[in-house]
Amino acid sequence: LLDEWSHMAPKLKELLSNTRKIPLR
Questions:
Q1: What is the pLDDT of residue 9?
Q2: What is the Cα–Cα distance from 14 to 10, expressed in whole angstroms?
Q3: Whole-prediction pTM value?
Q4: 18 has pLDDT over 80
Q5: Is 4 exposed, middle or buried (0-12, 13-18, 19+ CB in 10 A)?
Q6: How many helices (H) and strands (E) does the chain have?
Q7: CA atoms of 18 and 10, how far apart (whole Å)
Q8: Is the pLDDT of residue 1 over 80?
Q9: 24, 23, 21: which is closest to 13 by C-alpha?
Q10: Cα separation of 4 and 19, whole Å?
């Protein structure tokens, strides 16, 4: 599980940063 998370962590961070850039309206 830890290996999978360490691999997914950067992708999740990218998604969060992208969603933050996009306005919710």
A1: 92
A2: 6
A3: 0.45
A4: yes
A5: exposed
A6: 1, 0
A7: 12
A8: no
A9: 21
A10: 22
Question: In whole angstroms, how far apart are CA 25 and each of 1, 3, 20, 22?
Answer: 36, 36, 12, 9
Calpha distance 1→23 (Å, rounded): 33
- Pick the more confident residue, 14 or 21: 14
Token code pair at residue 24? 């919710």
**What torsion do the CA atoms of 4, 6, 11, 13 make, to the nearest 10 degrees?**
140
Backbone angles phi, psi at 23, to 5 degrees: -70, 140
Q: How far apart are CA 4 and CA 25, in angstroms?
A: 33
**Residue labelled with tokens 């830890």:** 2
